[in-house]
Amino acid sequence: MLKKPVRLILIALAAFLIFVPLHGYLSSRNCARMVICISNLKQLGLALNMYACDYQGNFPTDLSLLYPGYVSNLTTFLCPIKAYTSRLNEQDVLKNFTVCYEYIPGLTREDDNRILIVFDRKDNHAHIFGHHRDSRNAAFVGGRVQAFNPLISSTNRQSWEQVWATHQKLLQERSHKSQP
Ligand SMILES: [Zn+2]
Protein backbone atom coordinates (compact mmCIF):
# COMPACT_ATOMS: atom_id res chain seq x y z
CA MET A 1 0.00 0.00 0.00
CA LEU A 2 1.43 3.42 -1.00
CA LYS A 3 1.69 6.20 1.54
CA LYS A 4 -0.97 8.92 1.24
CA PRO A 5 1.33 11.74 -0.05
CA VAL A 6 2.78 9.43 -2.71
CA ARG A 7 -0.71 8.39 -3.77
CA LEU A 8 -1.81 12.03 -4.05
CA ILE A 9 1.23 12.89 -6.17
CA LEU A 10 0.50 9.95 -8.50
CA ILE A 11 -3.15 11.00 -8.86
CA ALA A 12 -2.12 14.59 -9.62
CA LEU A 13 0.46 13.38 -12.18
CA ALA A 14 -2.13 11.12 -13.89
CA ALA A 15 -4.64 13.97 -14.03
CA PHE A 16 -1.98 16.26 -15.53
CA LEU A 17 -0.96 13.70 -18.17
CA ILE A 18 -4.59 13.13 -19.20
CA PHE A 19 -5.76 16.75 -19.05
CA VAL A 20 -2.89 18.54 -20.80
CA PRO A 21 -2.94 16.65 -24.15
CA LEU A 22 -6.78 16.65 -24.17
CA HIS A 23 -6.86 20.38 -23.51
CA GLY A 24 -4.32 20.98 -26.29
CA TYR A 25 -6.34 18.83 -28.70
CA LEU A 26 -9.59 20.69 -27.98
CA SER A 27 -7.85 24.03 -28.23
CA SER A 28 -6.34 23.27 -31.62
CA ARG A 29 -9.74 22.16 -32.99
CA ASN A 30 -11.38 25.30 -31.65
CA CYS A 31 -8.50 27.37 -33.00
CA ALA A 32 -9.07 25.87 -36.49
CA ARG A 33 -12.80 26.64 -36.24
CA MET A 34 -12.01 30.21 -35.19
CA VAL A 35 -9.72 30.64 -38.24
CA ILE A 36 -12.46 29.32 -40.56
CA CYS A 37 -14.96 31.75 -39.00
CA ILE A 38 -12.58 34.66 -39.74
CA SER A 39 -12.15 33.35 -43.30
CA ASN A 40 -15.96 33.19 -43.75
CA LEU A 41 -16.33 36.83 -42.72
CA LYS A 42 -13.50 37.87 -45.06
CA GLN A 43 -15.29 36.10 -47.93
CA LEU A 44 -18.65 37.63 -46.98
CA GLY A 45 -17.05 41.09 -46.73
CA LEU A 46 -15.50 40.69 -50.20
CA ALA A 47 -18.72 39.34 -51.69
CA LEU A 48 -20.75 42.22 -50.21
CA ASN A 49 -18.34 44.71 -51.79
CA MET A 50 -18.46 42.92 -55.15
CA TYR A 51 -22.27 43.03 -54.99
CA ALA A 52 -22.14 46.76 -54.19
CA CYS A 53 -19.88 47.35 -57.22
CA ASP A 54 -22.64 45.88 -59.39
CA TYR A 55 -25.46 47.85 -57.70
CA GLN A 56 -24.30 51.51 -57.65
CA GLY A 57 -22.49 51.09 -54.35
CA ASN A 58 -25.47 49.65 -52.47
CA PHE A 59 -25.01 46.59 -50.31
CA PRO A 60 -27.76 43.94 -50.62
CA THR A 61 -31.00 44.41 -48.69
CA ASP A 62 -30.67 40.80 -47.49
CA LEU A 63 -27.67 38.48 -47.00
CA SER A 64 -29.40 35.74 -49.04
CA LEU A 65 -28.93 37.87 -52.20
CA LEU A 66 -25.23 36.92 -52.17
CA TYR A 67 -26.10 33.29 -52.89
CA PRO A 68 -25.19 31.75 -55.29
CA GLY A 69 -23.88 34.55 -57.53
CA TYR A 70 -21.33 36.05 -55.12
CA VAL A 71 -20.93 33.25 -52.54
CA SER A 72 -21.46 29.78 -54.01
CA ASN A 73 -20.80 27.73 -50.86
CA LEU A 74 -23.52 27.74 -48.18
CA THR A 75 -21.03 26.77 -45.44
CA THR A 76 -19.55 30.28 -45.78
CA PHE A 77 -22.68 31.49 -43.95
CA LEU A 78 -22.05 29.08 -41.04
CA CYS A 79 -19.83 29.98 -38.08
CA PRO A 80 -18.11 26.58 -37.63
CA ILE A 81 -18.12 26.88 -33.83
CA LYS A 82 -21.86 27.59 -33.71
CA ALA A 83 -22.54 24.97 -36.40
CA TYR A 84 -20.71 22.35 -34.31
CA THR A 85 -22.43 23.15 -31.00
CA SER A 86 -25.93 23.71 -32.44
CA ARG A 87 -25.69 21.04 -35.20
CA LEU A 88 -26.42 23.47 -38.03
CA ASN A 89 -25.93 22.64 -41.71
CA GLU A 90 -26.51 24.07 -45.19
CA GLN A 91 -30.27 23.40 -44.98
CA ASP A 92 -30.47 25.69 -41.95
CA VAL A 93 -28.74 28.42 -43.97
CA LEU A 94 -31.27 28.06 -46.81
CA LYS A 95 -34.05 28.62 -44.23
CA ASN A 96 -32.26 31.57 -42.61
CA PHE A 97 -29.10 33.10 -44.08
CA THR A 98 -28.44 35.00 -40.85
CA VAL A 99 -28.65 31.92 -38.60
CA CYS A 100 -25.01 32.51 -37.53
CA TYR A 101 -23.98 35.94 -38.77
CA GLU A 102 -25.93 39.11 -38.08
CA TYR A 103 -26.22 41.46 -41.10
CA ILE A 104 -26.90 45.23 -41.12
CA PRO A 105 -28.91 46.01 -44.28
CA GLY A 106 -29.28 49.38 -45.99
CA LEU A 107 -25.61 50.43 -46.03
CA THR A 108 -23.54 51.64 -48.99
CA ARG A 109 -19.83 51.66 -49.88
CA GLU A 110 -19.83 55.38 -49.07
CA ASP A 111 -20.50 54.68 -45.40
CA ASP A 112 -17.89 55.08 -42.66
CA ASN A 113 -15.64 52.04 -42.58
CA ARG A 114 -15.93 51.85 -38.79
CA ILE A 115 -19.53 50.66 -39.28
CA LEU A 116 -19.96 46.89 -38.89
CA ILE A 117 -21.81 45.08 -41.65
CA VAL A 118 -21.71 41.34 -40.87
CA PHE A 119 -20.59 39.69 -37.63
CA ASP A 120 -20.89 36.68 -35.30
CA ARG A 121 -24.11 36.48 -33.29
CA LYS A 122 -23.60 36.98 -29.56
CA ASP A 123 -23.61 33.33 -28.48
CA ASN A 124 -21.73 31.80 -31.45
CA HIS A 125 -18.49 31.26 -29.51
CA ALA A 126 -20.09 30.84 -26.09
CA HIS A 127 -19.02 27.23 -25.54
CA ILE A 128 -15.33 28.16 -25.83
CA PHE A 129 -15.29 31.43 -23.94
CA GLY A 130 -18.46 31.29 -21.84
CA HIS A 131 -21.46 33.58 -22.02
CA HIS A 132 -19.82 36.32 -20.00
CA ARG A 133 -16.76 36.64 -22.23
CA ASP A 134 -17.79 38.17 -25.52
CA SER A 135 -15.92 36.68 -28.45
CA ARG A 136 -16.81 37.52 -32.02
CA ASN A 137 -15.36 38.01 -35.45
CA ALA A 138 -16.71 40.91 -37.45
CA ALA A 139 -16.48 42.48 -40.92
CA PHE A 140 -16.76 46.25 -41.39
CA VAL A 141 -18.04 48.24 -44.38
CA GLY A 142 -15.10 48.04 -46.79
CA GLY A 143 -14.40 44.39 -45.95
CA ARG A 144 -11.86 44.66 -43.09
CA VAL A 145 -12.24 41.83 -40.57
CA GLN A 146 -11.34 41.95 -36.91
CA ALA A 147 -11.36 39.22 -34.24
CA PHE A 148 -12.63 40.17 -30.79
CA ASN A 149 -11.28 37.43 -28.58
CA PRO A 150 -10.92 37.65 -24.79
CA LEU A 151 -7.87 35.37 -24.89
CA ILE A 152 -5.96 37.76 -27.16
CA SER A 153 -4.35 40.63 -25.27
CA SER A 154 -6.45 43.74 -25.70
CA THR A 155 -3.92 46.32 -24.52
CA ASN A 156 -3.58 48.03 -27.89
CA ARG A 157 -6.84 46.92 -29.40
CA GLN A 158 -10.36 48.26 -29.13
CA SER A 159 -12.76 45.95 -27.33
CA TRP A 160 -15.99 44.73 -28.91
CA GLU A 161 -17.92 47.12 -26.63
CA GLN A 162 -15.91 50.14 -27.86
CA VAL A 163 -16.27 49.16 -31.52
CA TRP A 164 -20.00 48.47 -31.04
CA ALA A 165 -20.53 51.88 -29.38
CA THR A 166 -18.82 53.66 -32.32
CA HIS A 167 -20.84 51.57 -34.79
CA GLN A 168 -24.14 52.48 -33.06
CA LYS A 169 -23.22 56.19 -32.89
CA LEU A 170 -22.30 56.32 -36.60
CA LEU A 171 -25.50 54.50 -37.57
CA GLN A 172 -27.54 57.02 -35.57
CA GLU A 173 -25.78 59.97 -37.20
CA ARG A 174 -26.39 58.34 -40.56
CA SER A 175 -30.15 57.98 -39.96
CA HIS A 176 -30.36 61.65 -38.84
CA LYS A 177 -28.58 62.75 -42.02
CA SER A 178 -30.90 60.76 -44.28
CA GLN A 179 -34.01 62.27 -42.71
CA PRO A 180 -35.41 65.26 -44.65
ZN1 LIG B 1 -17.73 32.57 -35.39
Topology of helices and strands:
Layout: H1 4-54, H2 80-86, H3 90-95, E1 101-103, E2 116-120, H4 126-129, E3 136-140, E4 145-148, H5 160-178
Antiparallel strand pairs: 1-2, 2-3, 3-4
Zinc ion binds at residues 37, 79, 81, 120, 124-125, 137.
Describe what you observe in this structure.
This protein is α+β, with helices and mostly antiparallel strands and 180 residues long. The chain has one domain (33-178). The chain has helices spanning 4-54, 80-86, 90-95, 126-129, 160-178, and strands at 101-103, 116-120, 136-140, 145-148. It has a 4-stranded antiparallel beta sheet, with helices on both faces. A hairpin with a 4-residue loop joins strand 3 (136-140) and strand 4. The longest helix has 51 residues, at 4-54. The radius of gyration is 21 Å and the shape is elongated. The mean pLDDT is 88.
How many domains comprise the coordinates? 1
Helix tally equals 5
Tell me the radius of gyration.
21 Å
What ligand species are in this complex?
Answer: zinc ion
Describe the structure in brief.
With about 180 residues, this protein is α+β, with helices and mostly antiparallel strands. It has helices spanning about 5-55, 80-85, 90-95, 125-130, 160-180, and strands spanning about 100-105, 115-120, 135-140, 145-150.
